[in-house]
């Protein structure tokens, strides 16, 4: 439920943590569960109450994406690499990006034995066109099939950037089953038929189980059974991990650095992906008010943060550096602009610089050491969610750091619903949040979500993604130009990416904090083949679809 | 007769106002279900672009733009027809089926635990009150301490010692998920086995209050003249304790028990959270966190009806048992 990553992860109160320590002291059972070739992989996504059956990939399903239903290609958002072929083997764009030609894989069968053909792809795309409520991928093309293994999608306008949604986020469903479904948007598919590596073996409110598809085109996976549990949140997930009842989960655990000692047989993987920011309501033209609308204040906060200290105190060192242009470090190294003033946000504070910025903007320090201008103090309120312990700790470290500069930061905790609503309507000065990536390893998507004018609204209205109300004609022009450029044409794209990054750095509408590490724990003594390293073969988080299916496919039981 | 009519009218009015509040309160919560769903999707790494929002609005039908009075009329009409709507957080399951799958777990676990705790607490209370001044009095501070300890803390300690440390009981869940739910031996015994620890914590933490109340009533009843008369008649001690003193002393307990049965449905949130137990408390939490109006309303409706029903039952029974109540109003 709540964000499995950080949100509910560190919700545990001090009392609960203490209880976990008591449990730790009591030790765990002797059974290490390793060395069984028929071992069931038990996964916990953070689901905090019973499951209700729903395997419809277009209707907030509980599972099936990637495991039962496959996309045409798999896009790994952690690696700057070409997408990997799944139900399709090849794709190409025409020169102006209005026509996408797709070659489908041959000899693929649905799990009920019927042959997979281009008609299924056409049917799926047509389904999304006819049912707007299912079209979360925003498909706006027109598809035809010249033969059984080819599909051509045409668009009204250059649509290179729509490619990853069509190729990677549309899950192909069987025409022979779905054509008889009366209401495909709300059907819960109690016996789903797909092409994927797994089929649904059984469903119970407390757990559902996948079984390996023996006729999978890529060969049946080595892990024969995968079970997803329903517990009551990350605290119970932690207990289950200690009792070795769960092999795979993605939620922070106490003392993650020593996981191999605390949880024998387990390992952890930290994946930097979402970029944490202090989002500011930055744009007075759209109704923002407060000291944070002054770019000098935002720059001063940027230079006043002690990121190393925040990382140590609030995140156990699991976070990492961030680029002020929001290219994802490592993955986007090739496109991070050389025109940025800082390629990486400084990890140490520069108090003198921060003060200079404020003084140049007309602020003066008064007796109590806080800056003021026009009689009003430089005092800001930052909103976060009550119970997000890591964010609350991080913000209190930042409040101390900014006090050194002469900026007063007050932390306000809200309920999650309230916070979500205020974030959307722009009723805040600062909020702590993180920026997510799009469907492909390309920073374009982050820029278009969080910096594009079409994603924002006046204060009081609903901004779909651009909470900061940032709006800049130069950035909008660059984003529009990027939609007309083939992603392979890196030279032409770079100029526009440079423009976006430098404008983003100058404006500081979102003040970069750190890149958050998603922590995943896995039972290494029971299964091998887990993702590793800085650019793993898939995002290892158990709740991330379709990436989790990629992991399940590659695992092997130890001793098999 | 007038007494019962008056009572019934009162409960009907109470039910109507509860239903109306039930309609209004969830709508005053900040945020709307689409925002919450999108925020969750986004935090799970989903790519949220403007078309995703439109799709969700259409899918959930939340953007109806209907006026509040019209929604209210529709709500009452649907209730009359037994339709509780579609759950947003468990989309597209109907609220009634969400409640139907989770309610039995809570009713059986918390219901049985409450019953046990009342029986044990009252029984011990009668005994302790009767034998006032003996070593039995030391039960009082012991059980009061258990009641005073925050419930979740007691539960976590028991989990740590009995579940994790000694391995006597499972830590989490309502049953062994490899079994098939239904009327079969292995599943039922697994469900009972998984229920022992949560039930034990409820009994331990609540029996003390019943014990204390009954014991005090017992002590004051024993000072009554009719107990003295019974003694003077030379009746056996056990008969005086059971038929004269205890019978009068447990009257308030009986009323309290009916009311606490009404709260069974609502009072299980913490238990279910600690033990990852499948039940209505966990669903209520989920509904509140997801702005799932329909599910919240459905669960509140169940709570309202059980609380009102239990109270009505007590009122009617009291009228029967105690003539003073009937005449007094």
From TrEMBL, chain B:
Organism: Plantactinospora soyae
Alphabetical keyword list: Membrane, Transmembrane, Transmembrane helix, Transport
Gene Ontology biological-process entries: transmembrane transport
Span of domain ABC transmembrane type-1: 103-314
Pfam family, one: BPD_transp_1
Family: Belongs to the binding-protein-dependent transport system permease family.
Origin superkingdom: Bacteria
Listed transmembrane segments: 9-29, 105-130, 151-171, 191-212, 249-270, 299-321
Protein name: Peptide/nickel transport system permease protein
Keyword presence, Transmembrane: yes
InterPro entries: MetI-like, MetI-like_sf
Main location: membrane
Subcellular localization: Cell membrane; Membrane
GO cellular component term of the entry, any: plasma membrane
UniProt topology in membrane: Multi-pass membrane protein
């Amino acid at each position: 439920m709540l964000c499995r990553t950080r949100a509910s992860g560190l919700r545990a109160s001090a009392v609960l943590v203490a209880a976990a320590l008591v449990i730790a002291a009591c030790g765990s059972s002797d059974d290490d569960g390793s060395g069984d070739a028929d071992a069931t992989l038990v996964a916990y996504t953070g689901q905090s109450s019973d499951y209700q059956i729903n395997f419809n990939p277009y209707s907030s399903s509980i599972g099936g994406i990637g495991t039962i239903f496959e996309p045409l290609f798999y896009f790994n958002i952690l690696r700057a690499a070409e997408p990997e072929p799944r139900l399709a083997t090849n794709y190409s764009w025409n020169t102006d990006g209005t026509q996408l030609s797709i070659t489908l894989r041959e000899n693929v069968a649905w799990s009920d034995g019927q042959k997979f053909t281009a008609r299924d792809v056409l049917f799926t795309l047509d389904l999304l066109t006819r049912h707007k409520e299912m079209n979360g991928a925003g498909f706006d093309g027109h598809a035809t099939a010249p033969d059984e293994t080819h599909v051509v999608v045409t668009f009204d306008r250059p649509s290179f950037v729509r490619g990853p949604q069509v190729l990677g986020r549309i899950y192909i469903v069987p025409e022979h089953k779905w054509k008889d479904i009366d209401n495909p948007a709300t059907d819960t598919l109690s016996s789903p038929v797909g092409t994927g590596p797994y089929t649904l073996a059984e469903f119970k409110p407390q757990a559902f189980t996948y079984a390996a598809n023996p006729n999978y085109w890529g060969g049946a996976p080595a892990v024969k059974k995968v079970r997803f549990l329903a517990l009551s949140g990350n605290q119970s997930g932690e207990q289950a991990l200690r009792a070795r009842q769960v092999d795979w989960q993605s939620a922070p655990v106490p003392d993650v650095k020593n996981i191999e000692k605390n949880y024998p047989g387990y390992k952890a993987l930290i994946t930097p992906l979402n970029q944490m920011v202090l989002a500011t309501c930055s744009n007075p033209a759209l109704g923002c008010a407060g000291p944070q609308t002054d770019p000098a204040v935002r720059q001063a906060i940027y230079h006043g943060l002690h990121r190393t200290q925040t990382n140590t105190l609030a995140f156990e060192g699991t976070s990492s550096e961030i680029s002020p242009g929001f290219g994802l470090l490592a993955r986007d190294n090739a496109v991070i602009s050389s025109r940025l003033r800082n390629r990486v946000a400084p990890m140490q504070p520069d108090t003198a610089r921060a003060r200079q910025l404020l003084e140049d903007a007309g602020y003066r320090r008064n007796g109590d050491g806080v800056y003021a201008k026009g009689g009003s103090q430089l005092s800001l309120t930052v909103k976060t969610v009550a119970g997000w312990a890591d964010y609350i700790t991080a913000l209190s470290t930042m409040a101390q750091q900014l006090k050194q500069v002469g900026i007063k930061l007050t932390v306000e905790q809200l309920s999650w619903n309230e916070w979500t609503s205020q974030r959307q309507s722009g009723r805040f000065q600062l909020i702590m949040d993180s920026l997510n990536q799009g469907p492909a390893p390309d920073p374009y998507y982050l820029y278009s979500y969080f910096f594009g004018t079409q994603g924002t609204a006046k204060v009081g209205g609903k901004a779909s993604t651009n909470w900061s109300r940032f709006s800049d004609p130069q950035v909008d022009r660059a984003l529009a130009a990027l939609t007309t450029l083939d992603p392979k044409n890196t030279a032409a794209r770079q100029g526009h990416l440079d423009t976006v990054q430098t404008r983003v750095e100058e404006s500081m509408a979102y003040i970069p904090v750190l890149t958050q590490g998603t922590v995943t724990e896995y039972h290494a003594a029971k299964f091998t083949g887990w993702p590793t390293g800085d650019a793993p073969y898939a995002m290892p988080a158990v709740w991330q679809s379709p990436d989790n299916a990629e992991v399940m496919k590659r695992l092997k039981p130890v001793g098999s | 007769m007038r007494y019962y009519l008056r009572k019934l009218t009162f409960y009907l009015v109470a039910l109507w106002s509860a239903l109306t509040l039930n309609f209004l309160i969830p709508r005053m919560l900040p945020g709307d279900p689409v925002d919450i769903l999108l925020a969750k999707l986004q935090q799970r790494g989903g790519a949220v672009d403007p078309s995703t929002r439109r799709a969700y609005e259409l899918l959930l039908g939340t953007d109806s733009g209907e006026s509040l009075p019209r929604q209210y009329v529709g709500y009452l009409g649907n209730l009359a027809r037994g339709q509780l709507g579609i759950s947003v957080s468990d989309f597209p399951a109907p609220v009634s089926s969400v409640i139907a799958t989770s309610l039995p777990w809570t009713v059986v676990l918390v219901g049985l635990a409450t019953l046990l705790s009342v029986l044990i607490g009252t029984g011990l209370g009668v005994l302790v009150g009767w034998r006032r001044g003996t070593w039995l009095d030391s039960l009082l501070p012991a059980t009061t301490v258990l009641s005073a300890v925050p419930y979740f803390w007691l539960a976590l300690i028991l989990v740590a010692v009995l579940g994790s440390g000694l391995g006597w009981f499972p830590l989490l869940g309502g049953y062994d998920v490899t079994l098939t739910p239904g009327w079969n031996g292995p599943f039922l015994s697994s469900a009972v086995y998984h229920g022992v620890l949560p039930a034990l914590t409820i009994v331990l933490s609540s029996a003390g209050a019943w014990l204390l109340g009954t014991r005090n009533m017992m002590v004051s009843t024993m000072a009554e003249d009719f107990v003295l008369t019974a003694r003077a008649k030379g009746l056996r001690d056990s008969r005086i304790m059971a038929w004269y003193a205890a019978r009068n002393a447990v009257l308030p307990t009986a009323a309290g028990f009916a009311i606490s049965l009404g709260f069974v449905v609502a009072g299980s949130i913490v238990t279910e959270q600690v033990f990852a137990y499948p039940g209505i408390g966990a669903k209520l939490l989920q509904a509140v966190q997801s702005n799932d109006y329909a599910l919240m309303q459905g669960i509140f409706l169940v709570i309202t009806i059980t609380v009102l029903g239990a109270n009505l039952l007590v009122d009617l029974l009291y009228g029967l048992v105690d003539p003073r109540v009937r005449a007094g109003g």
